[in-house]
Amino acid sequence: MPHNNIKNDTDVLIIDDEVFLGETLKDLLEDEGYRVALAIDGESGLRFLKENSCSVAVIDIILPDISGLNILKTIKDSRIDCLPIMLTAYATLETSINALNEGAYAYIIKPYKVEDVKTTIRNAVDKQRLSRENRALLKDLQEINKNLSQANARLTELDKLKSQFLATVTHEIKTPLTSIIGYTNLLLQQKNQMLTQAQMDILLRIRRNSQTLEDLLDQVLDLSRIESGKVQIHLETFNIKDVIQEAIYIIEPIVMQKRVAVKTVIPDQILPMQADRGKVKQILLNLLTNAVKFTEILHAEIIIQVAQTSDKITLSVKDQGIGIASEDQKAIFEPFCRADSAVSKKYRGTGLGLSIVREFVNLHGGTVCVESELGKGSKFSFTLPLRQDNLKPPVHQ
After folding, report:
1. Mean pLDDT in residue range 57-66
2. Enclosing H/E stretch for 323
3. For residue 39, what is the domain's CATH number?
4. What pTM did the predictor assign?
């Protein structure tokens, strides 16, 4: 069978001092389409191997100047990219073993059968071609891997610089903002002495918007700390009921403004949990804030439910809001990501709340998930271990 895919780029070298036999084998292989060279002694054969590309060398063991086994050893020691096949009329078990130990691919015994020679050469050429292709592929992969490693190192450095930039800028903005809120509160305390109702309304608006901006800055700071590995878990033992009540109290103003109701479903007997109380409260606050924000139905119910096993606790926040399309649900926990719908885009926000929820849950070795249908509300649930015996310390960078 012709082998056109290997003929044009394959050379076979025959090293044989019996010129007639060498020429006969050369003609045979050229009829098969291979490019063939013939050397009648070991020295010229080695010179050809060192100066030319050769896939397969058919080497007679008995040569007038250099032993075929010595040529074989030179090929091996010099790392010549060639697959050797030994050729002899004096085959013994010992010479066969020696040849194979020195790296011979195969052994042809004179007189040879034409079909056996064709098969041996064909297999050797195929093996050498595959070997070269594999080496070339490996080299390409190593180069790609090197480039990817360099790019990844650069991205890591840029990500670090981004986090540092966010932390610095946020801090610089928050410092004067704190002063604005403080002075606004000071003025509001003088309401009965100095201020008109119109002035009071302006100050209240300034304080409300400033506090909103402060909350957004806190989220950016949380994210930068998470990404830099500087977030620590401060463990304490507490009852989740207390945290839920605190979170409800904090969001009470926006609950009243939206005219919705927050209800709880908590078992009478609940075990205390060990976790970072502040971060658990922040998780719950982020979920509750989103639930209230995205609920437009008057007197709608937002339900906080608690379920507990012997070693885990699950909290869920269920709303009757706008819901999330299925194609958006995987991405909503990514930083700065918001559901891609015309309805959701009218609500203000950074898209950091759920990202922080996921990171804080992960820090506790827990899981978070969402069930939602567009137009029918959402249910966010997170599960945490009741105890943090196996919690790994935070990584600092």
Report:
1. 91
2. none
3. 3.40.50.2300
4. 0.54
